[in-house]
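Notebook, p. 212. Picked up where the previous page left off. The plan for this session was modest: take the two constructs that came back from the sequencing core last week, fold each one, and keep the raw output in the notebook itself so nobody has to go hunting through shared drives later. Recording the first one now, exactly as returned: residue sequence, then the structure token string.
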Amino acid sequence: MAKQFSLGDFLHYTNRRTYSDVQGEVAYLDGAPLRRPFSMPVGQRLVVLIVVIAAAVIGFIFLNSTVLAALRETAQAEQTIATNLSRQASIETIPNMTELINMNDKGVKEAFQASEYTIYDASSENDSEDMILYKLPADMTTDEAAAYYAKGISNLTAPQATKLLVGSWQFVSEHSGVKSMVVRYADFSTADPQVAVQNALQKTGFDPESISDSGVDDSGNTYSLGTLKADDTTCTWKISAVPLDDMYSISKMPEEACYVGIRLTAAQ
């Protein structure tokens, strides 16, 4: 016959320390272990604390070197651009071209020197016989400007480009064919080329009544042109402007900006 197991036999073959309460034929587990405090040994808690601190430090280093660094760089760039834009505008120092049109290159240079401008002569860097001069911002050296121009304005950062363009202008005296002089600069006061043309017209002192044509040419330049007398020389003038983005594609440049060109050509 099969052996019959009684409750006593069952308790004999089980962990007597686990089943501590027997009522009739029912054995209940000992609940004492569940009532003990759930605490981690000091050594293990120290290890966990070290791991948490290490994770926090690594996380901060990663955040600081990526997100926070990018935010700081952006803020610094914006501050530098704002500082550059607060300097004297280029249009405030553009030369009176009616006084220069009858001068030779030497006379033009002497006139600029008398104005105590910092001038960078880039004439030797082009293949023509044209004289190319850059009037620089007051806080920029010729070496720094030369490095920027050599790199190419479109390859500059927005802080670098605004440092170079605010307060500067290019003067070109052309010697091929009809004598012509051109001044080019960036106007950071407006995004409207028509307004930029009006600003230049007012600054140059050209008579608005002398305008013979205006509009937008095939290249997208907003322009006005007319004639004037410089001493005994009859000249044609033309002022044109385009959004600065059309000239230089530079990330984070101020949106309100135009590139302006003023040309004065002596009649043959």
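Okay, moving on. Second construct, recorded in the same format:
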Amino acid sequence: MLQSFVQWKERYASFGLNRKLAGVLTPGVYEGFDLSPGGGMNLLISAAEDYPASVAVIEREGYSVTVRMDSSASIPVPSAGTWYPVIEAYYTPGQETHQQLKVVATPEEHHVVLGRVVVPSGATEIETSHISEEGRTVGSPLLMILGFTAALIDNESELLNYKRRLGNVEAWARHQGYDPETQYSGGGV
């Protein structure tokens, strides 16, 4: 069944908005959520210098949730090892939307990964050298457009291939007596 979102007098505006952009916006970080040492075994997550807030889109269970953070946050890294700071969010109609920053050893499909932190054994403080953007989930309309462009180029390439093949068949048919001005049917002329 075909549906449109958001509609006049829609019962849950949040339901309509969160469904409207699901599958349209690429999940990931759009602004900020920059990582830096936060003192001790803490990781500081903050906005970029050129934009006043951090913004990300999380897609989960058919909903697209935009998460915005207007200030910095500090989250603890549990111990030595490889860790991924992530954003987790989900929306259920009629309930409070859940969103949180956390550090996990293995990101799940619905997580937006902010980067990677590799803490060496014996370290007591997170250092800049421990932090990278490896694995970061980047949301970008430009990436979506590039994906659509690549698909269009693939389709055009296939079309050119079919035109070339049809031209070969037509050239062969002319050699066999085919007349392009004659209307042919299954049983003959």
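Notes on construct two before I forget. The first strand starts at residue 28 and ends at 31.
Flagging for discussion at group meeting.
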